[in-house]
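Posting for a labmate who doesn't have an account.
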Amino acid sequence: MIEAGAWKAIPFVAASLGVYYLFVKRNKNKVSQMLTSRPQLTHREFGAIYFGESKLREALAVEVRNILSHHLPVSVEGLSPQDKFQEHLMMDTFDSLSSAEFIIKVEEKYGISIRDDVALKSDITFGQLIDHIEQRVVETNMAIPGAGAPHEGGR
């Protein structure tokens, strides 16, 4: 049998969950409004417009954005290369493991390890992440299907 004092905690727990739900919902709306106020681009259009200086960068941007779309509860069609994962996209607000799962999927996709890289410790932008992944992919000399040779059209 539950002690009488334990029942007093139920309203506190319910209120805490309600406040958290409202916090997440408000942030989801904030991110969604920011992204929908921008030009809506497909993954391919995004890659070509912002990272089209080389086939490798374009292919990386397309695929990484696609992976990201599975880890955010909002559409990424308005994503900008300058968007920071935590500050602008509030990635960990929605799911505390979403950032880690996202990085793991990127690592698996390209056969690289970036989880412990110092460059990723701060709140980086999408563009900075693509720069970092490109560097790691070129270091491992991995060819990406449809992107040509790793060194082709490098920056």
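Reply:
Got it, the structure tokens are right above this. The first helix runs from residue 9 to 36.
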